[in-house]
Amino acid sequence: QVQLVQSGAEVKKPGASVKVSCQASGYTFSDYYLDWVRQAPGQGLEWMGWINPNSGATKYAQKFQGRVTMTWDTSISTAYMELSRLRSDDTAVYYCARDSSASYEILAESFQYWGQGSLVTVSS
Amino acid sequence: QSVLTQPPSASGTPGQTVTLSCSGSRSNIGSNHVYWYQQLPGTAPKLLIYRNNQRPSGVPDRFSGSKSGTSASLAISGLRSEDEAEYYCATWDVSLSGVFGGGTKLTVL
Predict the structure, then answer these.
(1) SS3 content of chain B, % helix, strand, coil (to 5)
(2) For a FRET experiment, which of A70, A71, A81, A123 has its CA 20 to 30 Å from that of A6?
(3) Taking the CB of residue A80, how many other CB atoms lie within 10 A of it?
(4) Residues of B in contact with A116 (CB under 8 A)
(5) pLDDT tens digits, chain A, 124 residues: what are they?
(6) How far apart (Å, rounded) are the C-alpha atoms in residues A112 and A15?
(7) What pLDDT digit, counting tens, does each position of B34-60 carry?
(8) Contact, B92 vs B99, CB < 8 A?
């Protein structure tokens, strides 16, 4: 069965960077898009971007352009999301989600399988 | 301020049918499929509906989705206490960026 296991909670100071990992199992990592979605406390869901491990393409939400970097290591079926210049309003649970769209498709589609979430707290 | 508009709350009694709405524009819902996610308290979201009206394996047929123009809706029939959750609609915009609604908190009275 598809499983996404994320790294643990982090506490960071404003201005620092955080890197969250997402290890996939139960499918061939490079065969599907993978998305990142975050949720601030008591707030809704916010899409951050996706990676296509097969084509090497990435797509970031405009809001995070210049601050987010999504990478991956196919050899260990792991994706990473690094967010820099952290602010207090970046405090959120960060989710990775395997897309339903295969990597040979042009477009990502739905967030079919989700990781358990990684809480990132930004506080001085 | 979310790109897609959902009412913040809705309620119903057990056995009732409730319909949750999601409003967008030509550049998002009007140009792409709509997806619905259910989030129970303290858990990760779960895909409920994809491509406007398709249910993933394991999702009861009490849940149904529809789309018309720049709006979409999720209907839940035979409402049950375990349906009490937050429901989010989502789609892609013409720039291939994902967009969500602000979510509707469904209360089963």
Answers:
(1) 5, 50, 45
(2) A123
(3) 17
(4) 44
(5) 999 999 999 999 999 999 999 999 999 999 999 999 999 999 999 999 999 999 999 999 999 999 999 999 999 999 999 999 999 999 999 999 999 888 888 888 899 999 999 999 999 9
(6) 33
(7) 999 999 999 999 999 999 999 999 999
(8) yes
Which residues in chain B are contacts of A2 at CB distance < 8 A?
A: none
Q: Are B75 and B62 in contact (CB under 8 A)?
A: no
In angstroms, what separates the C-alpha of B13 from chain A's closest C-alpha? 25
- Cβ distance of A46 and B100 shorter than 8 Å: yes
- Helices then strands, counting H and E runs in chain B, come out as 0, 9
Write out chain B residues lying below 8 Å of A46, CB-based: 100
- Interchain proximity A44–B100, CB inside 8 Å: yes
Cβ–Cβ below 8 Å for A47 and B103: no
Tokens 């097969």 belong to which residue? A54
How many interchain CB pairs under 8 A, A with B? 61
Verify whether the Cβ–Cβ distance A108 to B35 is below 8 Å.
no
**Going by C-beta distance under 8 Å and a sequence separation of 6 or more, which residues neighbour residue A11?**
A121, A122, A123
